Amino acid sequence: MIPCSARYVSDERRATSDQETVDKWEVQLRKGCLELAILAALWGGKLYGLEILRRLESDSDLIVSEGTVYPLLSRLKALGLVKSEWVESDAGHPRKYYALTPAGKKRAQDMAGIWTRFSASMSKLLAPLGKGIR
Amino acid sequence: MTMADDAERRMEAYLAQLRRRLRGLDDEDAREIVAELRSHIQDKAAAGGQVTSAGVDRALAALGSPEELASAYLTDDLLARAEVSRSPLRILESLFSWAGLSLAGFLVLMVSVVGYFLGVVFILVAALKSFHPRTAGLWILPNGADDFEISVRLGFGGVPGSGRELLGWWIIPLGVGAGCALVLLTTRFAIWCARQYRKSRALPRG
Q1: Which of A98, B15, B84, B181 has a 20 to 30 Å separation from A67 between CA atoms?
Q2: Least confident segment among A71-80, B19-28, B31-40
Q3: Could B39 and A93 be called an inter-chain contact, meaning their C-beta atoms sit closer than 8 Å?
Q4: How far is the alpha carbon of B130 from chain A, nearest alpha carbon, in Å?
Q5: Residue to substitute from A25, A38, A74, A79, interface B, most B β-carbons within 10 A
């Protein structure tokens, strides 16, 4: 009785830790794409922080926290990939708008090229698995 | 659009806490971060057309605690600095602020201080060898029958009574080499830790 229930618990635990591993992998994957996602969101023109967040949420599966995006924007600025300016708004307070610099545009295109090649080859490799999933 | 007084007070208290924890950054940068987040909270809380007290609370909760948010800014700043310049002084400056926010930051600071310190000592001993040829160097000093210590001496004191110097003039190239290697390794270590820290925080939600 006791060994039996012990095994049950350990199997259960392994199943959750497998799920955790997969979840962690997904988090890393999303995080790795975040920089490119932000640069891509700015491709069409300048946006302020909340607009970038909303763009990421509506146009992609990347549900990201505000506590991540703002520090990352400040890093991208320190690296010279984006520039910022304060613009007065109707809301009664100014907003900080971000826009790509030439270096940021180049970085976005380089990363997008790598992404496209990578995802095409991964899709080819993963095609046989897809039949079992859906 | 106006905000309920108590909601505004809570927002300003949050921003003041954040501001205090961003001390390691340039003043200008820290001021801008606070202004940007104030504008973000005002926009977010007004999403329904009217700024509500509950809206402010939701916006603050979504940003995370001031400590976490400041840590994210400081480690991102450290990584950005490291990409632009690898000056140990600038890296130490960021590490000092990070250390005040989390145990991880504190441990990384401690190890980095020791690493940089030893690196500087090795470079100094190499530089001072020409001025103190008889006393500067790597010494092995007996403390007892089977006990001895290895000591890097800058050569300011007298010649140690017993013991002998190990490297002679070789301390100059070896000291410079070991010192530079230690400084570089310490910088790499600090950057690696900052990256791991950023990765470990489960930031994207969903």
Answers
A1: B84
A2: B19-28
A3: yes
A4: 42
A5: A74
Together in a domain, B149 and B205 = yes
Distances (CA, A) of B44 to A68, B18, B127, B194: 16, 18, 58, 30
Q: Which of A10-19, A37-46, B69-78, B155-164 has the highest mean pLDDT?
A: A37-46
Tokens read off for B87:
């000056």
Interface of A with B (CB under 8 A): 27-28, 30-31, 34, 48-50, 61-68, 70-72, 74-75, 78-79, 86, 91-96
B8: pLDDT strictly greater than 90 = no
Q: For domain A33-122, is the CATH number 3.40.50.720?
A: no
Q: Total domain count for chain B?
A: 2
Q: B123: closest CA among B53, B178, B66, B86? A: B178
Contact B202 A75 (CB under 8 A): no
Q: Which of A6, A34, A96 is closest to B199 using CA atoms? A: A34
* Same structural domain, B94 and B19: no
pTM above 0.80, yes or no: no
Question: Can you tell me the ipTM of this complex?
Answer: 0.78
